[in-house]
Amino acid sequence: FGAPWHSQRPSALCSFSLDSELRAMAVPEDIKSQILGDPEVQKVIMDQAKAKGVDVIKVLQDPEVRLKICNVAQDKFSEYAPVIKEQISDFVNDPAVKAKAQEYLAAGWKAIGQAGQVLVRTIQQGPEGLRMVSFAAGSASSAWVLLAILNPLKIVFSPVTYVLSAYILLFSVSTMLFEAPPAYIEQYPALDQYQDLLIDKAPFISETLGRGLFYVFVGTLWLAQVSITSILTLVIGLFMVFCGVANIVVHFKGYTFFKEKLSEGYKAHFTTSL
Known about the structure:
By secondary structure, this protein is mainly alpha-helical. The protein is built from 17 helices and 2 strands. The chain has a two-stranded antiparallel ribbon. The chain is elongated.
């Protein structure tokens, strides 16, 4: 009659659900790194990136990528394979996994770029709600300061304030670029090239921590101009500071994700290679 059921290997019994002990098992960070660093996993990630874009989040959600991760885990780390298969969504959405996958993906593009001028730039963004609020803050700052710039009398009677207003406009527009989806910015060559310039020359603004501090800085520029008759200036200044603090918080809490954009050199290479 065969061995008693309780003496059989549990692999068949646990194919669709894990016992409480396995569910509580955590996959070590070094195992995650080794799985993502596996050549087979990296190949399927690159293949899907070429086919569907280079957004690492979208790549990790791809069924083929998930399947390959599970297969490699089964072949090389069988003790963790059941956990990874059962909790594959949690695995690919782990911030550490996303960061590591982004690192490998960028390295892959860089290797291709040695022959095809590929350049992938990375932008760190917060949750969608925060991005919308931050974009609104940049828009309000830009609109309000633009009214001051369009007043020619300020050039004559308040040149220092006029120059400061120009700086605030430039800074506000710059922050807005990094809250919008990169694919949208890429539709406008001038904005796309300016964003690339900022990433290359002022990379801190492409990260939520650096951008958060920058929001606070711009907010203080507004608050320095507050007077009894400029309530809206006070509101915009506090709004910018709030967005800055919020971006700093989500950075340290890990509630961020990465967007990747391509240089014009890559686009030309990629189009011809297709």
